Automatic annotation (TrEMBL):
<dbReference type="GO" id="GO:0005975">
    <property type="term" value="P:carbohydrate metabolic process"/>
</dbReference>
<dbReference type="InterPro" id="IPR011330">
    <property type="entry name" value="Glyco_hydro/deAcase_b/a-brl"/>
</dbReference>
<protein>
    <submittedName>
        <fullName>Polysaccharide deacetylase family protein</fullName>
    </submittedName>
</protein>
<dbReference type="InterPro" id="IPR049591">
    <property type="entry name" value="CE4_u4-like"/>
</dbReference>
Amino acid sequence: MSVTATRTGSDFPRSAAALDRLSGEGRQVSLWWRDDDARSVTPELDRLLGLAKRHALPLALAVIPVGAELALAERLAGEAGVSVLLHGHAHANHASPGEKRAEFGDHRPADVMRGEIVAGKARLEDLFADRFRPVFVPPWNRIGRTARALLAGLGLPTLSVYGAAKDSSDGEPAELNTHLDVMDWRAMRGLTFDAADGRLAALIDGRTGSAAVAEPIGLLTHHLQHDESAWALTDRLLGLLVAHPAVVRDGPALLPISK
């Protein structure tokens, strides 16, 4: 194991031990990485792309179509391994007062949401061309039954939210989800290393099936919201995961291609 893996393993001892157990059993776990809320080129985006390049890890960037800038497409043009996903429409909350925030909950007519999804997909296809992947990422990781039922028919066969994937019914999108958010949203700062270690170790230990059938572990970041603790945590987590032989970095292979 590399020096980097040894150092970061000491940062996340339970996760490193869980990965070592997998490796000792001749098994692996798949990893993918999604970052949300991109619209424009910012210093934070540059920092994110720098991390992805330094760790040689593919990155799925969830882009908000309303306000997405041509400059973002130009910035990504030279970045290998960066895919673009459809992140809602305008990242606007339509939930009633007192309810959890949602843009595509069951609060609006199906035709309205259909129009926004179609327009957003067309916008990102136009901006990003082959870099775009037909994956719908609802803002705040919440989606109602009406919008969920629309996706596959609109050329979006995959949904990405947060938490364990649900079995999809006929005509509904498959789920490719995230499971470890580096942010502590109540404190508006990065998770502690100890909290992240406990969550990641539990996720790894929960992958009891073979590498071919076990659900990939999704890392979730929000580059515009990160404080220094979130950046440090992301960097060290990536250092552990990409260096360990029990981790398969097959992000692009998990994402469908637009037809």
